[in-house]
Specification:
InterPro entries: YheC/D. It holds the Pfam family ATPgrasp_YheCD. This is Endospore coat-associated protein. By secondary structure, the chain is α+β, with helices and mostly antiparallel strands. The protein folds into two domains: 1-27 and 135-295, D-amino Acid Aminotransferase, Chain A, domain 1 (2-Layer Sandwich); 28-75 and 86-134, no CATH class. It is 32% helix and 31% strand.
């Protein structure tokens, strides 16, 4: 049976939200509109705005809400004061909300959600977009990182988490994606900056289990899926957050690790359900091609 792919982030989010136990891992995520933008900026200091369909982090934007204090000095109104000091200055302070839009490597500042929305619409151009509560990511060497968890159907047709890696953002980038300059590290390497050995092992086991649970839940709605890639964030309290699910996850990136057995198992499972050619089949095909040319 053909491998099922689901491109809509919103469709996959809704499928996971049907499970109350798994819904707690999903940050507040909604369809984009000006009303939603205004409401979520009241609730959160940071949100991400991303296309419902898209890969490699393309089109992802971040909005940060900042409180700016404005101050001014004025001369005191001596006519309305009893024996006022000479040349009295009164400092007047008020606060104002500002909105910073970060996209690619640029940043723009806006004074209202309406002004921000007009700028966003020029980028969105009538395409369906989502808005998601921003998670303050843990960092590795002062750069934010998230985790990719790969879960596949194994040779027995059961879900198994076969690979994990961390993606450390490139300088001045708001996304961690490898195709956008992010650096690939082992999960253990980045978690050890923040946890002891027991906590690292516990978190890795939790990630493995989460991959299987998410796959089983998504399979209820999309029975033809054979593999998923979870993008998972850790906040400063070490809580896990599911940023999104990819049903066509990259597997070649696992070749980068020195332990080649990880990729060999990933490739073996992928060949079994038809994602890639079996190595022996590929060799046989090449030999037949050579024979035909020779004949």
């Amino acid at each position: 049976m053909r491998i099922q792919r689901v491109s809509s982030k919103w469709a996959k989010t809704k499928a996971i939200l049907r499970n109350r136990d798994l819904a707690v891992y999903i940050p507040d995520t909604r369809k984009y509109s000006l009303d939603t933008l205004e409401e979520m900026l009241i609730l959160y200091d940071m949100v991400y705005i991303k296309p419902d369909r898209g890969t490699y982090g393309s089109g992802v934007m971040r909005v940060e809400q900042r409180v700016v204090t404005l101050s001014a000095s004025t001369q005191g109104d001596q006519e309305n004061q009893e024996d006022p000091p000479e040349n009295l200055e009164v400092k007047v302070e008020n606060t104002k909300l500002m909105y910073i839009l970060r996209y690619l490597k640029s940043a723009e500042v806006f004074s209202s959600p309406e002004e921000l929305d007009r700028a966003l619409i020029k980028i969105i151009q009538n395409q369906p977009y989502l808005i998601q509560k921003g998670i303050n990511l843990l960092t590795h060497k002062q750069r934010p990182f998230d985790l990719r968890v790969l879960t596949q159907k194994n040779l027995d047709g059961l879900w198994e988490t076969t690979g994990m890696l961390s993606r450390v953002a490139a300088p001045h980038k708001i996304i961690t994606n490898y195709h956008s300059g992010g650096k690939i590290k082992s999960v253990k390497a980045v978690l050890e900056d923040h946890m002891n050995t027991f906590e690292v092992d516990s978190t890795i086991n939790q990630l493995k289990a989460l991959g299987v649970l998410m796959a089983r839940q998504l399979e209820r709605t999309y029975p033809g899926i054979k593999e998923i890639g979870l993008d998972v964030a850790l906040d400063p309290h070490h809580n896990l957050w599911l940023l999104e699910i990819n049903t066509l996850p990259s597997i070649v990136v696992f070749k980068l690790f020195s332990d080649k057995s990880i990729y060999r198992r990933i490739h073996r499972y992928a060949a079994a359900y038809g994602r890639v050619k079996n190595n022996r089949s590929a060799i046989s095909s090449r030999r037949k091609g050579i024979s035909r040319i020779s004949g």
